[in-house]
Amino acid sequence: MSGKVLFIKLLFFSLLLSADAFAQTDSLVMDNGNYLVGEIKEMKQGIVQLKTKYSDGDFKIKWEKVKYLKTSQFFIVYLSKGVRYYGSLSSDPAHPENIIVHDFQAGSVSVKKLNVIYLKEADKSFLSRLSFDVSLGYSLAKANNNSQLTSKLNAGYLANTFSTNLSYSMNRTFQTIEDTIDSKTKRTEGNIGGKYFIGKSWFLTGSGNFLNSTEQKLKLRATIKVGAGNFLVNNHVQSLSVSGGAVWNIENYYEETGQSGKNSLEAYMGLEYVIFNMGDLEINTSLYGYPGLTEKRRFRSDFNFNLKYDFIADLFINLGFTYNFDNQPVAGASKFDYVFETTIGWEL
Q1: What are the phi and psi torsion angles at 280 (to 5°)?
Q2: Which of 124, 144, 177 is the endpoint of a domain?
Q3: Upper half-sphere CA count for residue 47 (Cβ side, 13 Å)
Q4: In terms of domains, do 91 and 158 share one?
Q5: Is 283 exposed, middle or buried (0-12, 13-18, 19+ CB in 10 A)?
């Protein structure tokens, strides 16, 4: 179908949307000439999620297949080079490969459609910018009456200049001996952090991580981390970022070690990689190294791997692996600790 015919269809939709009966709707014209009217909820990983009144489930459409669009609501807009906007969207009639972002502060800005890597419906309320998911897992081995309980929670807040995140995970292993339930191992980890985007793919970052691990004899390890980073790759297929900075490490040990605790200063280098555009699969992995500054020859590292599969509506299955290493642990503790997790969860 010719571009002129598609443009006429777009104009036709624009006239429809101006009527009160179609208030608060978005329109999409596909590259094959088909058109859809509904509410764009989000675009991530190259997939547009469109809610319509005539379907029980949301439509999932490839972003690259969208020829024209027009929105009546506001979005947080992320570009591949780290630039962010907040406003409504419409295709550029003169240049169909471009999208005009009607930003509150920058005014109307024309950008390449394929440079838009993320859209999220958002108004000025707090809840519209909030994300949340929770998952649970349980396993039982009859042979030794051993069971394991795992729970995970993640929450995030997204603005046009910064993002924050909160996570919590708990792992408990129990064994029943003569009708008595004994807790064998405990591991609890929490993290709160954020990024402030400064353009051109650069960002400032800060976080606080809290870990309790019986395997490493840690009653509490608190690491306060500040640094800066850069997105080396950031598109519809994958995201790769590096960061570095300084860490203040605070450790308290269980009484059995005979030590109360210590504080130390460390440097850090980190690598985070996410691969998506794999249908309902998403892979997220990170590796951080912490060479000691005040403790010579000490080196710690953290590795995380998560595979998430969205299978029904807002339900998902998550497979996770976490590995922690410390070449100078407290006396009696293992140099490393690792956890495999399988959970089923729900996301907002």
Answers
A1: -95, 10
A2: 124
A3: 12
A4: no
A5: middle
247 and 221 share one domain: yes
For position 319, which CATH number holds?
A: 2.40.160.40
Per-residue model confidence as pLDDT tens for the chain (348 residues): 455 555 555 555 454 444 433 445 788 888 888 888 888 888 877 888 888 877 767 788 888 888 888 887 888 888 876 677 888 888 888 887 888 888 877 788 888 888 888 887 776 556 666 778 888 987 665 555 667 788 888 898 877 678 899 999 888 887 665 555 555 678 889 999 998 888 778 899 999 999 988 888 889 999 999 999 998 887 777 889 999 999 999 999 988 888 888 999 999 999 999 887 666 788 999 999 999 999 989 999 999 999 988 887 778 898 989 999 999 998 888 888 888 888 998 887
Whether residue 86 sits in one domain with residue 135: no
The verdict on 85 and 162 lying in the same domain is: no
Q: How many domains does the chain have?
A: 2
Count of CB atoms situated within 10 Å of the CB of 130: 14
Instruction: Say how many residues make up the chain.
Output: 348
Say yes or no: 288 and 316 in one domain: yes
Q: Whole-angstrom Cα distance, residue 287 to residue 277?
A: 22
Provide the token pair at 112. Answer: 């390449």
| Domain limits for position 277 | 128-347
Structural domain ending residue among the three candidates 101, 124, 147: 124
Question: CB burial class (10 A; 0-12, 13-18, 19+) of residue 54?
Answer: exposed
Residues 92 and 168 in one domain: no
Q: What is the pTM of this model?
A: 0.74
- Domain identity same for 172 and 195: yes
Report the amino acid identity of residue 128.
S
Answer for the pair 49, 63: CB distance below 8 angstroms, yes or no. Answer: no
Report in angstroms the alpha-carbon separations of 194 from 163, 171, 206, 226, 334: 5, 25, 6, 10, 31
Contact between 187 and 339 under an 8 Å Cβ cutoff? The reply is: yes
